[in-house]
Specification:
This protein is about 35% helix and about 25% strand. By secondary structure, it is α/β, with parallel strands linked by helices. It has one domain: Spore Coat Polysaccharide Biosynthesis Protein SpsA, Chain A (Alpha-Beta Complex), CATH 3.90.550.10. Strands 1, 2, 3, 4, 5, 6, 7, 8 and 9 form a nine-stranded mixed β-sheet that branches. The longest helix has 20 residues. It is globular.
């Protein structure tokens, strides 16, 4: 058994996947399991992954319905007590992120979260576009929108308890997942004031091409959970993101 399982799900991302894998394998002073799932890529992603010969990688290739279906499969295959997702294109902030996290796992929390920085590639350099740093003391139906999903380390038992990710939401499955977490009682939550991840800005949830589809799924999830108050939560979530972006410009 492992304390920690790191999961990367990828499909047709040959330009970015190796940056993510190398970032994970460079993590020092920490024992962890690393699972990579390729969703039957049609580009050279699969060939690049097959070249790795590391005992730290548990790699499999399998058709899936969407991102969250693949994540669920990886979680069910995992041997760790805790799950940490790092998406293709994202990289760890430094080589000691998992070491810092593992020290906190001694307290056996249910959830740990930290900070992330968004970046985009510009003239062969990484340009920081947004900083997500919001200290949270406890989880509730408002504070959950202030926590970056990609910074969360979650006890596997908790994920099972809320029945994994809902694969009906191909883009907004993370928001549905977070709302379900916020409804749990007596959650032992730790905020760690460290940066965990550099997150690529051009991901599925931030893509202009999928904006309308994401908006529709966001509304469905919010209406399901909050009824007529759904607009309040949507504008709260949106305002928080805009505030962070403007704060960077000041």
């Amino acid at each position: 058994m492992f304390d920690l399982t790191v999961i990367t799900v990828v499909k047709n991302d040959n330009q970015n996947i190796l940056n993510t894998v190398n970032s994970v394998l460079k993590q020092k002073n920490c024992k962890f399991e690393y699972i990579i799932c390729d969703g039957n890529s049609s580009d050279t992603t699969l060939n690049k992954l097959k070249k790795y010969n590391s005992k730290k990688i548990n790699f499999f290739c399998e058709k899936d319905k969407n991102l969250y279906d693949a994540i669920n499969k990886c979680i069910k295959k995992s041997k760790g007590d805790y799950i940490f997702l790092i998406h293709s294109g994202d990289i760890f902030y430094d080589d000691f992120v998992l070491q810092k996290i593992q020290k906190k796992l001694i307290k056996r929390p249910d959830i740990i979260s930290g900070n992330i920085k968004y970046f985009k590639k510009y003239n062969n350099e990484n340009l920081i576009t947004r900083i997500w740093k919001s200290p949270i003391k406890k989880l509730n139906k408002l504070s959950i929108f202030k926590i970056p999903h990609t910074s969360m380390i979650i006890k596997k038992k908790i994920i099972k308890k809320i029945n994994y990710y809902n694969i009906s939401y191909s883009i907004s499955g993370d928001m549905d997942f977070m709302i379900k977490l916020s409804k749990l009682k007596k959650i032992n939550y730790i905020y760690l004031n460290n940066f965990f991840i550099y997150m690529l800005s051009d991901g599925l949830s931030t893509s202009k091409k999928t904006f309308l589809k994401k908006l529709k799924q966001d509304f469905e999830i919010l209406i399901k959970n909050y009824g007529l108050n759904f607009l309040f939560y949507y504008f709260f979530k949106t305002y928080f993101k805009i505030f962070q972006y403007l704060r960077m410009k000041i």
